C-alpha cells in the first residue's frame, strides 16, 4: 500500500526576505521529496492584501501538494508612528499566535500535519506545536555564524554584564569556527543592552539553548563557506544532547519576483551593456540610507565612471531598515526629491535608477552584471555566490555586519568601504572602492574577483545531488517521513 506523504506546515516571519527562503525550502521538499506543504503567512497591516511580490513568491510553489493560508492582519493602531520595523516583526508573530493556533489545530486534524517549520521570530509557536503533538523545527534563513551567536547569547549576556553597549566590549567575541567579531559587529538588535528588544533576544536564546521540544535547526549555509562553524554546531550539545542541525543552503529564489514591466526595463537595459560592466546597487527589501548618505553614494557612483543599476528607496534619517515591511513604494517615485540635482541626466546611458524593487536574481544572473554593492543581507549574499558576482559590503542592520566580516575577512569575496568619524561613507571612498572592484585593479580587487569565481562553483556543487546541502535536505526529509509513519 502506498504511504501518504508527510504534511508539514511552514511559518515564515513577516517580510518578503523571510518568505523567499521559506517558500524555496518548501518547494524543494515538495518537488524533490514529495512532501505536502501548507504555508501559513502572517500579515502586517501593510501587506494586506498581499503585494504582487508576495504573491509572485508564493506562485513559485507547485500547485499540487502546496497550499497557502494568509492569517488575518495584525493590528498596529496602538503603536507609535516611529516604531522600529524590527519591533513590528516580532509583534506580528506574537499577535498572530491565536490565529496560528486556530489554523494549526485544524491542519493537525484534517491533514495529519507532522511538523512545523518556524522562523526564529515565531519561536512562541513551539507551545502550540507541543500541545498538538507536532514536531517543531526552527529555520534560520541565515548562516552558521549567526546561529552560533544566538546560541552563545546567554553566556555573552553574562560576559557583557558591566557594559551598556556591545560595541564597548574590550575583547572580540570568539565563536567556535568563526572569525573573531568586534562588539560593534554583533547583531544590531543586541547592541544596546538596556532595551526591551535586547532582553527579549536573550530570553529567546535561552529558550533555544534549553532546547525543550525543538526537534532540529535548519539554516541557510553550506560546508564550503563555513566548514569549521558548521562542524562546531554539529558537535555542540544543546540541552544535554546533540541537536540535529541541517545546513541546507544556498536556499535562494529561483525565479524573478517583481512586476513584469519594470523587470523588462531593467533587463533590456542590461542587454545593451558590455559583459561584466555593470555594478548592481541594492540594500535589500527594506534597507534605507540617510539623505546625506544617498547624496554621497550618488556622487560616488558618478565619480567612479562605472556603469550601474541603483535600486533606490526613499531615504530615512532615523532607521536603516525603514522600508522593511512596506513591500511596495510609498507614493509616486520622485527621485529629484532626494537625488542630487542633475544626477540622473549626467549619468544617463551608463546608469539606471530603479524605483524600490528590481528582479534581483535575474539581474545578478545577467552576463552584463559584474559587481554587487550590497547591504549583505544573507539571501543577497548567497545569490551573489551562486551567480559569481563579487561584492562591495555595505552592512546596515540585523546580522549584516557579521555577514560582512565573513565576506571580507574570511571568504575574501568583498571589498568594504570605510566610513569617516561621523559614520558617513564619503563619495571619494565610494568611487575608489567601486573602481577597484569593477576594474579588478589593486591586489584586493583582484583577489576578490578570483575568489568569487571559485566560490561560484562550490556554491552550485552544494546543491548537486551528492552535494552537502542536498544530502542535509534528504536527511531532514527522511526524518520527517519516519516521524509521519510512526
Ligand atoms: N530582492 C529582490 N529585489 C529587490 C530587493 C530584494 O528580488 O529589489 C530579493 C533578493 O533577491 C533577496 C531578498 O529580496 O532574495 C532580500 O533578502 P536579503 O536577506 O538579502 O535582505 P533583507 O531584505 O532581509 O534585508
UniProtKB/TrEMBL annotation:
Keyword field: Glycosyltransferase, Transferase
Coiled-coil region(s): none
Enzyme class: transferase
InterPro entries from the UniProt entry: UDP_glucos_trans, UDP_glycos_trans_CS
Domain of life of the organism encoding this protein: Eukaryota
GO MF, any single term: UDP-glycosyltransferase activity
Matches recorded under Pfam families: UDPGT
Documented EC number(s): 2.4.1.-
Family: Belongs to the UDP-glycosyltransferase family.
Listed name of the protein: Glycosyltransferase
Source species of the chain: Morus notabilis
Amino acid at each position: 500500500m502506498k504511504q501518504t506523504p508527510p504534511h508539514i506546515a511552514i511559518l515564515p516571519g513577516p517580510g518578503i526576505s523571510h518568505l523567499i527562503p521559506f517558500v524555496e525550502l518548501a518547494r524543494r521538499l515538495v518537488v524533490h521529496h514529495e512532501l505536502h506543504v501548507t504555508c501559513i503567512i502572517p500579515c502586517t497591516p501593510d501587506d494586506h492584501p498581499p503585494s504582487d511580490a508576495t504573491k509572485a513568491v508564493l506562485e513559485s510553489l507547485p500547485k499540487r501538494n502546496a497550499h497557502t493560508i494568509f492569517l488575518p492582519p495584525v493590528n498596529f493602531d496602538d503603536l507609535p508612528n516611529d516604531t522600529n520595523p524590527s519591533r513590528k516583526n516580532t509583534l506580528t508573530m506574537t499577535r498572530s499566535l491565536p490565529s496560528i493556533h486556530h489554523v494549526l489545530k485544524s491542519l493537525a486534524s484534517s491533514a495529519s500535519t507532522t511538523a512545523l517549520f518556524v522562523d526564529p521570530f515565531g519561536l512562541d509557536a513551539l507551545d502550540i506545536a507541543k500541545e498538538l503533538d507536532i514536531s517543531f523545527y526552527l529555520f534560520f534563513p541565515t548562516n552558521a555564524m549567526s546561529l552560533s551567536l544566538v546560541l552563545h547569547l546567554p553566556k555573552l549576556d553574562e560576559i557583557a554584564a558591566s557594559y551598556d553597549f556591545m560595541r564597548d566590549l574590550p575583547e572580540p567575541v570568539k565563536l567556535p569556527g568563526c572569525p573573531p567579531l568586534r562588539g560593534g559587529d554583533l547583531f544590531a538588535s543586541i547592541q544596546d543592552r538596556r532595551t526591551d528588544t535586547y532582553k527579549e533576544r536573550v530570553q529567546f536564546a535561552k529558550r533555544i539553548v534549553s532546547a525543550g521540544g525543538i526537534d532540529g535547526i535548519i539554516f541557510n549555509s553550506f560546508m564550503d563557506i563555513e566548514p569549521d562553524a558548521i562542524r562546531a554546531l554539529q558537535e555542540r550539545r544543546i540541552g544535554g544532547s546533540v541537536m540535529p542541525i541541517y545546513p541546507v543552503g544556498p536556499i535562494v529564489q529561483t525565479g524573478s519576483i517583481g512586476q513584469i514591466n519594470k523587470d523588462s526595463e531593467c533587463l533590456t537595459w542590461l542587454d545593451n551593456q558590455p559583459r561584466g560592466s555593470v555594478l548592481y546597487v541594492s540594500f535589500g527589501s527594506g534597507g534605507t540610507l540617510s539623505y546625506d548618505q544617498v547624496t554621497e553614494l550618488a556622487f560616488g557612483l558618478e565619480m567612479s565612471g562605472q556603469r550601474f543599476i541603483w535600486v533606490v528607496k526613499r531615504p530615512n534619517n532615523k532607521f536603516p531598515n525603514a522600508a522593511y515591511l512596506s513591500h511596495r513604494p510609498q507614493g509616486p517615485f520622485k527621485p529629484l526629491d532626494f537625488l542630487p540635482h542633475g544626477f540622473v541626466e549626467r549619468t544617463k546611458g551608463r546608469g539606471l535608477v530603479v524605483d524600490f524593487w528590481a528582479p534581483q536574481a535575474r539581474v545578478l544572473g545577467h552576463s552584463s552584471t559584474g559587481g554587487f554593492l550590497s547591504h549583505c543581507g544573507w539571501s543577497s549574499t548567497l545569490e551573489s555566490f551562486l551567480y559569481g558576482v563579487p561584492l562591495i559590503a555595505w552592512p546596515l542592520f540585523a546580522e549584516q555586519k557579521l555577514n560582512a566580516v565573513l565576506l571580507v575577512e574570511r571568504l575574501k569575496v568583498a571589498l568594504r568601504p570605510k566610513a569617516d568619524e561621523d559614520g558617513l561613507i564619503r563619495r571619494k571612498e565610494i568611487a575608489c572602492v567601486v573602481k577597484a572592484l569593477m576594474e579588478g585593479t589593486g591586489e584586493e580587487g583582484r583577489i576578490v574577483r578570483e575568489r568569487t569565481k571559485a566560490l561560484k562553483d562550490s556554491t552550485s556543487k552544494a546543491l548537486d545531488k551528492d552535494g552537502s546541502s542536498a544530502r542535509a535536505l534528504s536527511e531532514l526529509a527522511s526524518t520527517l517521513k519516519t516521524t509521519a509513519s510512526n
